[in-house]
Amino acid sequence: MRTRHIDRTLLTIVATLVGTGFFIFLSASLGLLARDGASLSSVALSQLFFGLIGGSIGLFLTSQIYYRNWRKYAFYIFLFCCLLTLAVFIPGLGYEHGGARRWLDIFGFSLQPAELLKIAFIIYIATWLSGIHKHLQNFKQGALPFMGIVGLVGGILLLQPDTDTFLLMATAGLAMFIAAGGRWRDVGVMVGLAIILLLVLAFTRPYIMDRFTTFLDPEADPQGSGYQIQQSLIAVSTGGVSGRGFGQSVQKFEYLPEPIGDSIFAVFSEEFGFIGGTLLIVLFAFFTFRGFKIATHAKDMFGMLLVVGIMTLIVIQAFLNIAAMLSVAPLMGLPLPFISHGGTALLVTLTAVGIVLNVSKYQKNVI
After folding, report:
1. What integer pLDDT is reported at residue 367 of this predicted model?
2. Whole domain around residue 276: which residue ranges?
3. What pTM did the predictor assign?
4. DSSP string spanning 50-68?
């Protein structure tokens, strides 16, 4: 019996992204020194121990677990994560920040359960679609219950509110629906409903409308809704061709909102310039192509759908973050995977990559 190996190319790409991300995160974190109430040590420790070390352990463990085992417990994992996400509304357990209630305070540690729900959703949808894919041509047996599952998740997340995470999950779910053989007519119906939902949210939640108007005219309110994108463009343009140099960003001090969060690509571009920014985008592109290639060689439909869902979640988030910092997409407040601050996010992302690596062990053909 031949020895099975994980896809080392994908692992190398991920290791490069994480390593690059940690160093630019350290540089961006210096911007916190100029801000009142910011604790550089706590932020760095959270990213190092909870995100980097915890995520590496998670990646190793999930890369060793036979991926089909997730199918046995998919419903219970999904149900648990739904309940855990709803727990943010429990007084004393969940807490609010920036007008959103998305975090749990557990023994002094901050946890964003929606990050766990993303992966639980992918596992459950992959399980469900691989079981009923022969009936996807029937609207009542395929598209309708699929929209019900997505709607359930949407209801939980929109209450927080966490519109961005819901849109990411819905997009990943739709990609899986298409990959499983869903009808394009049903896809069109879902896209139409999504557009209607976005319009309703835009007119009922002013911050969403502000994102669209700022995208269309970033200079309309340079000191208000357009401030972040203006400062981001200044950082990117200041970097020039080769950048100011590692640690030399000026914009991260007091100017860029969230320099360790969704603005971290702007800090990276200021320090490493057009060349560095392009290389980072190319690295994400290699990650994308390698991941989806693993999906095409998956042993079964469940494995293929798992990889499609996980890769779509990560890739769409990465390119939307970069596009927003370059003013070619609306600002959504999404962190840059593998790089931005967020211990829970990095832990979950690396753990999910471990599942992809395990699927690669059992691919039909050696790539």
Report:
1. 45
2. 8-130+225-361
3. 0.90
4. IIIIHHHHHHHHHHHS-TT
